[in-house]
Structures are given as structure tokens and as C-alpha cells.
Amino acid sequence: MDYDALLWLSFGGPEGPDDVMPFLERVTSGRGVPPERLAEVAEHYHHFGGVSPINRLNREAIAAVEGELARQNLSLPVYFGNRNWHPLVEDTVARMAADGVRNALVFATSAYGGYSACRQYDEDILRARAAFGEGAPQLVKLRQFFDHPLFVESVADAVRDAYTQVGDPGARLVFTAHSVPTAADAAAGPPEEGGYRYSRQVAEAARLVAAEVGAETYDVVWQSRSGPPQVPWLEPDVVDHIDALHDEGVRAVVCSPIGFVSDHLEVIWDLDNEAADRATELEMRFARAATPNDDPRFARLVVELVREQTEGVSPRSLSDLVNGGDTANGAPCATRCCEPARRPAAHT
Ligand SMILES: CC1=C(CCC(=O)O)c2cc3nc(cc4[nH]c(cc5[nH]c(cc1n2)c(C)c5CCC(=O)O)c(CCC(=O)O)c4C)C(CCC(=O)O)=C3C
Ligand SMILES: [Fe+2]
């Protein structure tokens, strides 16, 4: 199949103090996130001058992918569009159409399945194509890659670096990913597979990385919980987990945010501030492993996923779990796959 562009599709983040509230309102509209939580998260952004690093990090990762495409003699222009902040994917798709793009591949910046990590990017594709209307480019999403050898190798190397930094070979290895409502996790994946696609894939990626670095003991925990307190989300939270490890007598922690592909705000606030501060209070050593971002292996991984589509390169994966997500024009991976969990009304 011939493709004439690659669309890099991400979450987006504010680029200045005045962007923060409009951005947060866009992220949470209709999602039942309490106003107190919104105000608290706004403070996290304001702590960094209202600027999330995510757009800059995406531009760096794109530059790495452009370099890798050039090295492999592939000519494929890369476009950048976001769900929640400028450049918005609707505007990017309109620009692609104006440039004559007919058939594009889409790389969504998440390794996993599930509603928030996969299906919501399909919804972005649907929305952007609908906004353009007739003649919108075809948009074919690349697959999930949580168990791709290049992803595992990149994360494992970052974990090794963090062990060097923490200076304690006995440090406990703790993986984190963004928490989601337990109902959303249960509904993720085709019904015949019984759901839990997101949490199972996160657990599998963690297992592969732990095996690669030779860690016998490790934990998978969650971070950045939002939503009203009465709604159950995946637990335990990383900060509570640090308390629990302290009670167990653990003296040092290496934390790998395996649920993310860049060191964006949820990583630098929730881990480098909140989790690291708790560890310091408890006199535990703490080091956070980097995410892939502009690691050359990550760029190679993206180009390999492209070549799976353009040249039939055979997909590499280290586990037997399903790798979904590769669908056209925002279709779900399977019937009733990764439907949003029904959310309680924010206020009645
Ligand atoms: C699974 C998952 C990923 C990983 C997959 C992927 O990477 O796509 C992810 C990534 C991210 N989440 C991010 C930021 C936010 N997420 C929020 C809220 C939520 N996230 C959720 C899930 C996820 N989120 C959910 C279920 C909610 C509740 C509202 C809803 O049901 O939709 C809120 C609202 C405020 C709050 O935290 O309450 C913010 C600000 C940023 C950008 C950081 C930056 O600016 O640098 C990134 C990359
Ligand atoms: Fe899915």
C-alpha cells in the first residue's frame, strides 16, 4: 500500500499560563472530573510556568523519526496534531488535505490498548476527518507496540541507567502507568477476550522489561488518578505504594513510567515531585527512569511500524498478547472494543 504522509497524533499540552484552563476544560469536558481536581492539576502546570513539555518532546521525537526515515531512504512527510491543544489534529488534517495528502499513516503516542490509550485516538481521527468533510485523507493507525523488542530494549536501558543513578543494586523496581477507571479497564478489548486489555498489556510490558534487566522482584502500580473519589480507579497509587514499600523495609526505589512514551507533565510532576518527595521524606533513595522520547531505538520502532504497513515487514513482538489498534479512519479494533466506560454524571 502507498502512503504519502505520517501523522504524529498526541495528547497536547498548554504552552503558557493562559492556555492552562482552556486546555484542562477541553481534556475533561463531559468526563465528570470534579472542579477541585481541575484546580489542583492547574497548579501542577503553573508550577512549570503554565508550559507542559509535551509539545516540545513530541517535536524532538518527530525530528528523530524524520532522521530515521531519511537514513532509510523513505520519503514520508511527518505532520503533528493533538487531541487537546494546538496544533489540533483537526487543523493538521485540514493542512494535510490542502497539501494534497490522500493516504496517511497515523502514529498515536501510546504503546497500549484501552479506551484512553487507543480508542480515544480513533475518536480523534473520526472527529478530524468529519470536521474536514468530503475528501478528507484516509488515516490508517499504526498498531500498539507495548511488547515490541525495541520498546522493551529502550525502557530496559533507561531502567539500567536509573539503577546506576540510585546507586543501590537492591533498589525495588516499580513500574507506573496512568490509572484509569476500573470499569474502563474491564471494558477494554473485544468482549470475547474478557477485557482488561490495558492493564494486561501494561503488566506484560513490565514483565518483559524486568526480565531484560534481570529484576526478580518488581511492582506494577498506577499514577495520576483523576475523577470523583467514589469512582474506583486502578490501584495502588505510586505514592501510597512508596509508603507500603517503606513499611516493608525497602530503602531504595527505581521507578519506570512504562505507561508513557515521553517525560511529559504527568511524569515530571507526579513522579519527579510527588513520588520523589515522599521517598525523600521517608529517607528512601529514588530514581526515575527516562521514557523513550527521542531515543534512536524508538525512532527505529516507529519506522518499523510504518514499514509493516508499506512493505509488509513482519511484526515483531515479544508476547502472545494481542496488538490491536491498527484500524482505518477511526474504526474500533473490534466490535465493541474499548468502549468508554459509562461515567456517572458529574453533578446531579
Ligand atoms: C491512559 C491514559 C494516558 C496514557 C496514554 C496516552 O499517553 O495517551 C494518559 C496520558 C496523558 N494524560 C495527560 C494529561 C491529563 N490527563 C487527564 C485526565 C485523564 N487521563 C486519563 C487516562 C490517560 N491519560 C483518564 C482516564 C483521565 C480522566 C478524564 C478522562 O476520562 O478522560 C487530565 C485532566 C486532569 C486530571 O488529571 O484530572 C490531564 C491534564 C497527558 C498530558 C501531560 C502533559 O500535559 O504534559 C498525557 C500524555
Ligand atoms: Fe482498542
UniProtKB/TrEMBL annotation:
SUPFAM superfamilies: Chelatase (SSF53800). It comes from the Bacteria. This is Coproporphyrin III ferrochelatase. GO terms for biological process: heme biosynthetic process. Fe(2+) binds at residues 178, 266. One of its GO terms (molecular function) is metal ion binding. PANTHER family: FERROCHELATASE, FERROCHELATASE, MITOCHONDRIAL. It is found in: Cytoplasm. Gene3D superfamilies: 3.40.50.1400. InterPro entries: Ferrochelatase (IPR001015), Ferrochelatase_C (IPR033644), Ferrochelatase_N (IPR033659). It comes from Saccharomonospora piscinae.
